[in-house]
Amino acid sequence: MIFSELKKEIRVMFTPFRDGLQSVFGGKTRLNDILPAIEASAAAGIRHFEFGGGARFQAPFFYVGEDPFQCMSTIRKTVGPDADLQILTRSVSGVTLTTQRTSALALQAKLMKKHGTTIDRNFDFMNDVGNLVNTGQPIVDSGMHHQICVAMMGLPFQSDQAHTPEFYINIVRELLKRGIRFDSVCLKDASGTTDPRTCYETAKGIKAILPPEIPLIQHTHDTASTAVACYMAGIDGGVDGIDLAVRPLASGTSQPDVRSMAHALKGTGYSLDIDHTKMDEIESLLNEGLSEYEFNPVTTSADARVVGFPMPGGAIGPNVHMMQSAGILDKYSAVLAEFPEVVRAGGGWTSVTPGSQQYWLQAFNNVLHGRWEKIDAGFGKSVLGYFGSPPLSPDPEVVKIAADQLKLPPFDGDPLEAAPDTLAEAEAALKERGIEVTDENKFLVAAAIVPGKKMELNEGIRLLEGRSKITLPLKKEPIAEAATLTAPTKTKVTVNQGGNTRTYEVIIEPPASAAAPALGQTQPSGGQATDVFSPFDGNVELVEINVKVGDTVTQGQVVAAVEAMKAKHDVKAPCAGRVSAVHAAIGNEVSAGKPILSIEA
Prior knowledge:
With about 600 residues, the protein is an alpha/beta fold.
């Protein structure tokens, strides 16, 4: 049991409005639905919030149709000028999922500071010290508080070389030698899989070598129900601050509730710097604001299996929602079972974004296609060295397979120098479409660029052109089963406009016996047509059509592609023949019940 004769107050960063939203809903929530709770939190005296970065930068414009910079500025205005507002950035990826150049990271830091950020927590999923130094400098130059991270997790296999207390302490030791300025250090366990003893020994060892003016912060998730125990161990080892949330955006895949932690610290000599008695009102406002949202038990419940698949809460949430949307949630357990092999082969990098997404997608590909039959581009680039050096050596056979499939050689240089110039690409796309070239617009487009993805589908372009894809996890209204029409049916419709009431007689025609060709294309008359569908039962986005009406195709030819789980999946022709109709356009949502095209044998 921890105890301190000297009273010590533990600083709390309040996380429901960033990590809580990301862990439970993949960040897919409207700002106005949480704003009253944010206002109440500020009124309750909370002065340190996590409010942006991570998926909560991407989700607003990817899935909600909201500008994340405007969201950040609104939150700053709501909490006032004196509160600390913190973001989360991903080293060489920034707030994106791919590597960026230093110029993009510098613009990112400038814009984050401009829109209200005071503290930038920066982690590297490889724990590559060189990456942390190079990506930390733009944060320092922007004038923000630079919080550098040691990324932690429990390995799903035994190793005495990585993810041990000494391994983590050495990271800080190396950073102190490099001369990069950092204002605080965070022990960040995104998956909640580090054991309490390791938390204690790591905190104690790092605190012993840190200058006394640099605070040590701890972050973990409650996915394995061990977060409070890990925080208690960290505090005993010298941690100065921790991250907490509030129901319904606490516990499970999120952080522990403030009230749980306050209770655990009773009589220990330690206390929290926020008032736990004010949580009831904040919880009530969140329940009211989120009443339309569907809470998935996978993201709100603890799951002890996470110790064998170190997946962060902030990634479990989005991936569960994507699997559910694609109609493949039944494969969830199989994907989890594949994790230990994927982590071992990759080199044991930490399961924080984008590393967690790479683990997930490779495990998913292994389940869907067979082990290593399809290498995820991000996972492949990581084992090849394009994101930095992993803690352990990747499996040489997997490295060879990745190089062959991706047609890329192994790389041991600076990932920032090998990154594409996304800012130039974004500026060209804005000019081509007549959209104003501002720093914000340019960064929104650059942050959504994925190699091989068409610019028409870029989420930044979509937002700026007013055609965002809205995908909110809302409760589904029950739909009454409609009777099937077999003949034209008359009905009356009453319309009230400007005080004038008019009644119209409407004739409803029965559906055609065969689907009419889409996009104005004519369906040929002879022959037997075979429809081509998405390989997923649920809704996914059509991102490629590689054929047109009249083209001859062979069985197994890739005729289209859909995006599921943030990855592209081929759609192959089930038979040989001639394309007789195309029923969908790029950007449409398709499912197993909606044909993409038809092939006439």
